Amino acid sequence: MPRADSGAAADSGAAGDFGSPGGFSAEHLLRIADRVEGLRSAAFDRAARENSHREWVADAEKAFEASGVGGTPTVLVDGTALPGGDALYDAAEFSKVLRDAGL
């Protein structure tokens, strides 16, 4: 996925290997990028069309798969995944999970 070199955050869920069958085309990715203020630029568009970050995307996907993590968000404490679910989205519940993990 092209990086947002301008500092804008791209939605990584909109990425994927857009050059492969079943992946997103560059034009589809650019339509998604239109929804992120400040993301589109000549450099971003060129990177999407030339697929210049393909290797980075492949490496990131391999690292995610090798991590054993089943999804995002995931919180690890000393290499152990904390229980997920609603606790990751509720401050009081998340604080309890952290306390239960000894933090």
TrEMBL record:
Protein name as catalogued: DsbA family protein
Domain DSBA-like thioredoxin: 28-88
Region Disordered: start-end pairs: 1-21
Protein species of origin: Streptomyces zaomyceticus
